[in-house]
Amino acid sequence: MQTFLLDGLWFNLELSVSCGQAFRWRKYGDIWYAPSPYGEPTVWKIRQTVDTIEYEGVSETDLIHYFSLDHALDEILSCIDRDLLIHDAIVRCRGLRIMRQDPWECLISYICSSCANIPSIQIRIENLAEKYGTRILCDNKAFYSFPSPGQIAAAPICDVRSCKVGYRDIYICEAATMVSENPMWKDAVRNLPYPEAQKKLCELNGVGPKIADCVLLFAFEKYEAVPIDVWIERILRTKYIGGEKKLAYAKAGAYAREHFGIFAGYAQEYLFASREIISKKGE
Fold first, then answer.
1. 3-state SS class at 109
2. With CB atoms 3.0 to 4.6 Å apart as the test, which of 8, 176, 209, 282 could cross-link to 152 if both were Cys?
3. In this predicted model, what pLDDT tens digit does every residue of 186-232 receive, in sequence order?
4. Could you tell me if 205 and 107 lie in one domain?
5. 192 lies in which domain range?
């Protein structure tokens, strides 16, 4: 394995790959494995020591890009460190980085995430990969690359349905058709300001504001996007805004952006990573 010296960079591999932003990382022993997040039929192997990242199957350039090791994390965390609750989350989870995922895989992953927990999401994604992706053997373990938009767009909807994605089958097929027919869609979304980018993604059937915000945050570097799930809504309502009535999605996101600033999405991720501890406070 090759070695990347962290040289004072804050990075927590375990938290970053297991906190719910990406779904294909698996740990065997002390090594994390994943089919290449950028579509190549290879497997990434990553292991972290105190001050290094050991890696195989990935270039150093892609390693830095995917894990956002070029981010000035201390500056980002300083920007969002505006109250005791987020301060404690930063101290507890320092080194958690928002990764730069492939937009296509991220879009389908979060379409699969609607009304589901993480294990269910993982099963749906793996079913799609096993049916349409390329099988890759690594250390006597089988992995599957994520299918291309064209592979899914060409498939009968009944075949996609057999991947146990439920009612999401039509949404996945429509998204695959859109992406395969519009190869510049990523650039179009990336070049839009956040509000317009959210609206653009919400034009897709099966994509509402939460799924759009997840894709914008985890694949398009729109760090003002704040995905509001039940945990974050509860934290904002009970620990920040007050009141017993459930917060409307738009109101919760607007508050987070006003309170935490341009990196509100990072604040969301740190609060989410600390959600169980935060929820126990004041009980």
1. helix
2. 176
3. 999 999 999 999 999 999 999 999 999 999 999 999 999 999 999 99
4. yes
5. 103-219
